[in-house]
């Protein structure tokens, strides 16, 4: 395995924050409020769900902040579970992250990029039906040089024939984005940070402009929806009550938490963050706060110009609610502008996950659980092999075409592993009345979670609620995810039996030196 490995510490506090914000703000908030409108009867309830999602995200971030300061190592949550609950839980986390969660997110968001690109393809006169793209350039036609007797042009001086991309062209676009960003992040140490900074600043500025367009220009031009913020029949709950209301709220909350997810990503590159014991907890607090404010403002702007019934129809049609909100005020120019912002937003999200996710698999491979090459760094100081294998598997997932199913499985897997992470936190620090004596009391804690143990307990209960909600509303996808993750159990025991002992000892020494 070689000697202890350390990544170059190229990431400042600013990059850590932009990794979080950039990973959180992707396609979710641009699409999901319309899907949430299918579950909930009023904009007020949708905004309430987003506020609840923001609070739970901050609770989770406060929990992770203490753990990241204790173990500022590349791989983040993998180390939290391994240190708090043992190698088995670390292994299962790494298994699920590679085969389902992180690569699934990369694949899904890259497909979302191709779907947003479809809008511009059609605006240029092309078509992008399903997985086939045909671009026809009209502006490139030059003067006629050969005509027939009727004056019909037979040949032009300059003419670009229709360009048809290969079949499965949406997948082709998505895979191209994945492989391009994998090459950049694998070849150039620190290159992912500037890309993330630029994309994050652009998307925050663009989405801030959307809020301005809707609230300021919408009021000035009289484009406000006649029943802005009104629910169906003027009813906040739309007649939902009891169990039905709880299930609908839980399903919408699961969607919102998918939009909010991405905040743990900075912990996966902890070994590359300068002064990680200080900067990681700060980033984990600042990043989700910024994103939460943006999300709530955006959702409010949507329903300022789009009624709940219109939002439901957008969800049914798989349309994009953010561009439609801008289009309601400024027409086609507004729709074009926000669609462009969406492209930048989704591009930045793909980059954020390709930058961070392979650090989990790097740590995982150093324990002998994946291909040994994934535990090596390149001469450029990056975990290049882990990045490239991540890109390859994500590309294969893209070609399955099961975007919606994959998203549901990803959310289920994410929150399933938040449950043992919250337990690991309490087990290491100790909660006497729960029977946790504190297995890591002697480990330095530069930052401590406030209101302990209330905060991790709320995080634990919220994660259980989301997992149960998905089981009730999307059992098939949840069972598929459980099946894929369960394969990791026999794999763990096989790996444990045949793992090279020297590799394990080197991994432990590397962990000690990184800390």
Protein traits:
515 residues; mainly alpha; two-stranded antiparallel ribbon; two-stranded antiparallel sheet; 68% helix; 2% strand
Element string (H = helix, E = strand):
HHHHHEEEEHHHHHHHHHHHHHH
Give the averaged pLDDT, no decimals.
Answer: 79
- Stretches where pLDDT is under 50 for at least 5 consecutive residues are 1-5, 131-141, 154-167
Shape: globular
Rg (CA only):
24 Å
- Name the strands of the widest sheet in spatial order: 1-4
Describe the structure.
It is a single chain. With 515 residues, the protein is mainly α. Helix content is 68%, strand content 2%. It contains 19 helices and 4 strands. The strands form 2 sheets. A two-stranded antiparallel sheet has the order 1-4. It has a two-stranded antiparallel sheet with strand order 2-3. Strand 2 and strand 3 form a beta hairpin.
Question: How are the elements arranged and paired?
Answer:
Elements: H1 13-24, H2 28-39, H3 43-70, H4 77-85, H5 87-123, E1 134-135, E2 144-147, E3 153-156, E4 163-164, H6 169-187, H7 192-220, H8 242-260, H9 265-268, H10 276-305, H11 308-316, H12 321-330, H13 332-366, H14 384-398, H15 403-429, H16 454-473, H17 475-486, H18 488-498, H19 501-514
Antiparallel strand pairs: 1-4, 2-3
Helix pairs in contact: 1-7, 1-10, 1-13, 2-8, 2-11, 3-8, 3-10, 3-16, 4-5, 4-15, 5-6, 5-13, 5-14, 5-15, 5-17, 6-13, 6-14, 7-10, 7-12, 7-13, 8-16, 10-12, 12-13, 13-14, 15-16, 15-17, 16-17
Summarize the structure.
By secondary structure, the chain is mainly α.
């Amino acid at each position: 395995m070689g000697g202890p490995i350390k990544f170059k510490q190229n990431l400042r506090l600013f990059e850590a924050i932009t990794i979080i914000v950039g990973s959180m703000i992707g396609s979710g908030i641009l699409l999901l409020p319309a899907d949430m409108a299918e579950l909930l009867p009023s904009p007020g309830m949708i905004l309430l769900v987003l506020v609840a999602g923001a609070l739970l995200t901050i609770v989770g971030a406060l929990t992770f902040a203490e753990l990241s300061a204790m173990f500022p190592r590349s791989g983040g949550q993998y180390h939290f579970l391994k240190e708090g609950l043992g190698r088995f839980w670390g292994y299962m986390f790494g298994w699920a992250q590679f085969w389902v969660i992180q690569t699934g997110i990369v694949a899904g968001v890259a497909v979302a990029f191709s779907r947003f690109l479809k809008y511009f393809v059609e605006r240029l006169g092309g078509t992008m039906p399903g997985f086939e793209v045909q671009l026809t350039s009209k502006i490139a036609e030059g003067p006629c040089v050969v005509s027939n007797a009727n004056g019909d042009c037979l040949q032009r001086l300059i003419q670009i024939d229709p360009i048809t991309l290969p079949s499965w062209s949406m997948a082709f676009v998505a895979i191209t984005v994945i492989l391009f960003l994998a090459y950049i992040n694998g070849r150039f140490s620190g290159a992912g940070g500037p890309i993330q900074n630029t994309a994050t600043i652009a998307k925050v500025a663009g989405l801030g402009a959307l809020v301005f367009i809707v609230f300021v220009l919408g009021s000035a031009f009289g484009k406000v929806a006649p029943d802005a913020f009104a629910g169906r029949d003027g009813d906040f709950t739309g007649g939902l009550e009891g169990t039905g209301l709880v299930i609908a709220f839980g399903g919408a909350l699961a969607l919102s938490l998918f939009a909010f997810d991405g905040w743990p990503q900075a912990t996966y590159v902890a070994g590359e963050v300068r002064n990680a014991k200080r900067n990681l907890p700060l980033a984990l607090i600042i990043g989700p706060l910024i994103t939460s404010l943006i999300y709530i403002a955006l959702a409010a702007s949507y329903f300022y110009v789009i009624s709940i019934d219109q939002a439901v129809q957008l969800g049914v049609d798989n349309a994009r609610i953010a561009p439609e909100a801008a289009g309601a005020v400024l027409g086609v120019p507004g729709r074009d502008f926000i669609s462009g912002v969406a492209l930048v937003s989704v591009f930045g999200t793909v980059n954020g996950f390709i930058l961070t996710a392979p650090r989990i698999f790097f740590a995982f491979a150093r324990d002998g659980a994946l291909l040994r090459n994934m535990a090596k760094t390149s001469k450029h100081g990056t975990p290049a092999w882990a990045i490239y294998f991540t890109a390859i598997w994500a590309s294969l997932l893209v070609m399955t075409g099961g975007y919606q199913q994959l998203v549901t499985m990803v959310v289920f897997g994410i929150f399933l592993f938040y449950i043992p992470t919250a337990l690991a936190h309490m087990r290491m620090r100790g909660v006497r009345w729960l029977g946790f004596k504190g297995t890591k009391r002697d480990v330095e804690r530069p930052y401590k979670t406030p209101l302990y143990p209330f905060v991790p307990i709320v995080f634990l209960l919220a994660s259980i609620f989301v997992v149960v909600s998905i089981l009730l509303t999307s059992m098939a996808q949840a069972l598929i995810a459980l099946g894929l993750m369960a394969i990791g159990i026999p794999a763990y025991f096989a790996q444990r039996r045949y793992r090279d002992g020297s590799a394990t000892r080197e991994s432990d020494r590397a962990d000690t030196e990184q800390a």
